[in-house]
Amino acid sequence: MTVRDSLLPLLGLAWRVLRVPFWLGLGLFLGFVGPYATYLDGQVRARFDDLSWDLPSRVYARPLELKPGLAMSAEALDLELDAARYTSEPGARTTGTFSHDGSRYLIARRAFDYLDGHEAERRIEVVLSANSVSTLKDAATGAALSSVRIDPARIATLYGTEQEERRIVHLGEVPPLLVAGLQAVEDRDFNHHHGIAVWSILRAALANLSAGHVVQGGSTLTQQLVKNLFLDRGQRFTRKFNEALLSLLIEARYNKRRILEAYINEVFLGQQGGQAVHGFAAASEFYFGRDLKSLSTPEIALLVGMVQGPSYYDPRRNPDHALSRRNIALQMFTDTGLLDDAALAKARAAPLGVPDRQGLPRNRYPAFLDLVRAQLARDYADAALGKVGMSIHTTLAPASQLLAEQALASQLDALAKRQPELEGAMVVTGAHDGEVQALIGSRAADEQGFNRALFAQRPIGSLVKPFVYLVALSQPQRYSLVSSLDDTAVDIPQADGSHWMPQNAEHEAHGAVPLMDALMHSYNLATVHLGLTLGLPKVKGFLESFGLTSVNPNPSLLLGAIDLTPFDVARMYTYFSADGHALPLRAVRGVLNAQGKPLTRYSIKAGAGEYVSAARLTSYAMQQVVVAGTAHSVTDQGLGYLHAAGKTGTSDSQRDSWFAGFTGEHLAVVWVGRDDNKVTSLMGATGALKVWSALFRKLPSSPLLLPRDGLEYTWVNPQNGQRTDAECKGARELPFLTGYAPQETDHCTWQEIKSLFSRNPNTSP
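Request: output the structure for the sequence above.
Response:
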């Protein structure tokens, strides 16, 4: 009898016993598991064939562009670097770090994509002197640089329905050590299993028992990916069954490279408030503030080690746990041949290197972001901004914004000791480009709420006067800075039988005054007489050329009876700071897609500049406002070197305090008042001007040097508007439009003769 013959009865018996379970099992498989696997396979294909995520759009400040001669202080440069999450490191060898020795800075700039292309990593040397950049060099070569950009600060994130921070990277963009180290720590058999690995589970169990705590996971990378993409966090048997089946299906359909790339972009690695951090690229920025490719060995090991428990191993909240876990990961790197003993010792000795500050921006510029959204709205639906991973490059200058916030808060705190209800708003722009560098909508600048800079329409008072005078000076055959104006009482009957009788601030009339003095001292009566002579329709038309639609052509318009927002006022005053060219204000420079390619560029087209020379004359007069007029406190406080031009404004009954002023580099408009429109008892010079001065005491800015083209400077006697000699008493050297300077001459000798005949004989010489 053969072995085969002896086994046949046994097999027959086994079949009789097992045939029912076999057929039941086969039926179950064909009737349930097969169709269910087919269903799950459809789910896998639907997700993996078009593997995509909602990507938040990131909002950036403008990059700081350094160049020799740029106005810059150490305080402002520190603010810019801090906003861009640069950390201090001796020698600044790591990208995203800086060091400074007195006025000499070394900055290791990060690589970044900008609107006009890619900027590579670079170490630069900056030397400051006299509140400006005196030297700019490439730190590696010592070569002088004409300019260099510092990567922009990320100021906000626009999320969609999922509050997930993520940056998509391809496997080729990931450091090889991270790819290999991830497998060494989480799944050493990744390249050999088909989705589940029994031996990995047993090995992890033994390692964990030996260590007394969890040091290795038993799940494969594919299983972990399935958990993130398809399943909840429960521990039910059905969930485990689904996990195994889905893992097998994914491995059957897709290659290892595709699976690994999906894992690297999906894995959960941290949380900040309601914002979850997914993927190694986003985690690199979140924890280190740097690109994934720039990470060191210990930094890579920290991120890989955190996969086991991002909350427990959070380096900010639990640095001891994080350090221990990082060192375990480093040891695993060494055990699998990725590091030698020397590299291991060096890496273990390194600090965690994670800054204490929050890794994601707090969207702390709500007023400015209102403007950004408004300017993007014409091209992008608001709901789409949080899904497509755009990079929105704005015009915000962190130093300007932060110093403006400090100035407004400090001055309002001082003023509010008597009036706690005081509020304020401010707009700061580039003087020549119309770019909004800072925008503050309330005293609580970083809180969402009513945005007074954009939406609070208040009467602007005397801020309107320069535009009235500009209309006059655009007629050089009739008006110049020394034209005599009538500052006498005004009495205009109204339709209801009443009389409009405006007064000067000091309730005195001054008779005949030079045009420039009327603007310097903000004489209401002279301005009304001038405006009525010019014609209200002409003044109204000029104001409407700025896009204003609610200009009421009443005589009170000449004294600022028009309600505008601080943003409107900034847009109008840019006409002067931009040398007689109307400019729209913009908050967005351009937009890049998720791949760093330009989508939209927002350029500025300046107006034709029909009244450039007249605008220069008006700006000159506003410089005198700051020297000896209603804003003389600017000069008195030591800011005369800026040669700023500006105008104070006070609305009826001192309800609103305004100041608009510009230097050679910046324009700033400030409003101070109360939301309930009650009297503040503040003039323009005692409220808003104090905020403006506090800003420019700290904000580096270049002096205003008016162009002389189209103008000729002549010494004149302001009392009669005639030419005179420089040494004559009261003589002023004033600009006139070329060809329109006075021709009649009033010499000092003739003045002396006239004074002899006009002298009172009863007075001693």
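The chain has 23 helices and 31 strands.
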